[in-house]
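Figure-free illustration: sequence to structure, shown twice.
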Amino acid sequence: MITIVDYQMGNLRSVQKAFEKVGVEARISSEPGEIAAAEKLVLPGVGAFGDAMAEIRRRDLAGPIVDFIGSGKPFFGICLGLQLLFERGFEHGEYEGLGIIKGDVVRFDPAKMGDLKVPHMGWNTIVKKGSSPLLADIPDQTHFYFVHSYYVQPADASVVALQCDYGHPFCAAIEKGNVFATQFHPEKSQADGLKLLSAFASLSSEPVNQ
C-alpha cells in the first residue's frame, strides 16, 4: 500500500491514478498517524515552498513525515515534495524546510538564462549520476516532464541521482538511503514515469540503513 500525503497542495489524484495504472493500491491521507505508520510514503506538491511548509505544519504533518523517513521505509518526493526535504527555500522570502537533506532551494535566474524562459516547463532529458535501483531501467537521455521555477542545490553532491540541464546543470533527482525524490513529475511523464513509480512500488517496505 502506497500512502500519498495530502496537505492541499498537490495533484494528488493524478499521482494516485498513476500508481493504479501500474497495478498498485494507493491511498490519499492527511492523518498524521496514517502517515507515520505508512508502508511506503509519497510526498507530492505543486505551489510555493513557504505556503506548503505552513500548511504541513498547520496540519501537524511535519513530524510524521520526518519520523517516517527516519524509520528507513521507502519515501518518494515529487516536485515540490523534493524541495521541501531541504533546509531552506527562497521563494518570496526565506523559509525553513523539513531539513532532511542539507542544502537550499533557489530560483533560476532569468538574467542568466538567455532565451530560455522561467519557469522551466515541458520535456527535458536526464543524465544518471548514481546507481539507484529505481533507475535500473531508466537510460540516460530519458525524457521527463518538468514544471518549476526553483531547483534544489544539495550541499553534498553524492545525493544527486539525476541531473538535467536548463541554462546550466541542475539536480533533477536525489537519493539518500530510503529517500528518493524527483524535480520532474513521473505521473505526467508517460511510460517512463510509470516505470519509475512501478520500481518504487516494488521496493521492499522493510527499513533500510540510513
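We now fold a second protein in the same way, so the two outputs can be compared directly.
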Amino acid sequence: MASRQLTQLSNGQWQISMESDISYYFLSDKRQETSRFALDEDGQILPLVYQRNSETSLRSDTTLLQNFDWDNLIEQGSYKDDQWTQPLKLGYLDQLTQITLVREHLLTQKPVPAIDISYRGSIRHHEFKVIGQEVIKTGKGDVMTAKVQLNEKKRDRQTNFWFALEHNMLPVQVQRIKEGEEQAKLIATDW
C-alpha cells in the first residue's frame, strides 16, 4: 500500500509526500518520504529539504536527511552515522523531485533529460527512456499510460514507471527489477 501527495504550501513552496507499507510473509518495509522544493524564475525545481524514514525487517530503522542551500550552493546531509557536505549544481534533484521533472517533460511532450540526483552524499546520474504506451489494469479500470524506464547499470537495477495519459500524467504504477527479478510493484488504486 502506498500514497503520494503534492501540495503547495502557504509560502509558495511545494511538498511531495510519499508513504509506502509493503509486507510479504515475514518481510516488511515501511517508508515515509517528503521533499520540499521551490521553483526558480525559470520554473526549474530547487529541492530544499528531503527526508526519508524507513523501517525494514532484518535491518535497523534509518533516516536520510538532506538540506539544499542554493544561496551558497552547498548540500548537507546525514544517513545513519554518516554526515556530509558537498557542492550543489543547478539541476541536482532528490529521489522524489526527479519523478516530478520526468512528469513535467511528459506533460509538455519534451524529451526526458538525464537527471543528476543527490543521494546519500554522492551524485547519481539517471537516464530515463520512454518505452511507449501501455494499458495497465488498476482498481479504477484500464488506464492508458506512458511507460518510462530507468536503468541503473552500476547497480544492475531497473525501475519502470507508468504515467496515466488521461489523468495529467499521474504516476500510477512503479516496478523495481534487480538482477532480472521483480523486487516490488506498486499500483495506484485511487487518485
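Summary for the second example: The mean pLDDT is 90.
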